[in-house]
Write a structure and sequence with these properties.
By secondary structure, this protein is mostly helical. It is built from five helices and no strands.
């Protein structure tokens, strides 16, 4: 698993380093990088889950759908959080609103994850679903480490 992760991380690092070296003219570069990153992540997950050919297509479609819903769910709360950090003289009510929005988003995210776990279970084994979650955590951890190294 670690060997595969290192290969994927090397590819991702190349993508992120290349994107950050380019002029920041628009969102096109970021969108392209995020799309490529998602593709690498899915390849990594599929490999770690030992998906069969018949499972892979269904998995990719469903995983992308789930990822989009989870990102949408968290987007508003993250935007509120960013705005709060920029705001001078935020009130207790402002902090409460953001805290509530974050808690609601996390609850919705958990419900989305559970719903998709049930859908994945129709064509994946529980071991594969477990491996998916394990690989997602490993991927997230490695991405965080790479961001920390890049920001030093």
């Amino acid at each position: 698993m670690i060997r595969h992760l290192l290969i994927i991380m090397t590819l991702i690092f190349g993508l992120t380093a290349g994107a950050s070296a380019q002029p920041r003219g628009g969102h096109g570069d970021r969108e392209k990088m995020m799309k490529e990153l998602r593709e690498y992540k899915i390849k990594f997950l599929a490999q770690e889950m030992n998906l069969e050919d018949g499972q892979k297509e269904r998995f990719v479609e469903l995983y992308n759908e789930m990822s989009d819903k989870r990102a949408d769910c968290m987007r508003d709360a993250r935007n509120m959080e960013r705005e709060l950090k920029k705001k001078n003289g935020a009130t207790e009510a402002d902090y409460q609103a953001v805290t509530d929005a974050m808690a609601k988003a996390k609850a919705r995210d958990a419900a989305i994850e559970k719903n998709y776990d049930d859908q994945f279970a129709k064509f994946l084994s529980q071991k594969q679903i477990f491996k998916m979650k394990e690989a997602e955590n490993e991927f997230r951890k490695k991405m965080s480490e790479m961001r920390q190294k890049r920001n030093r």
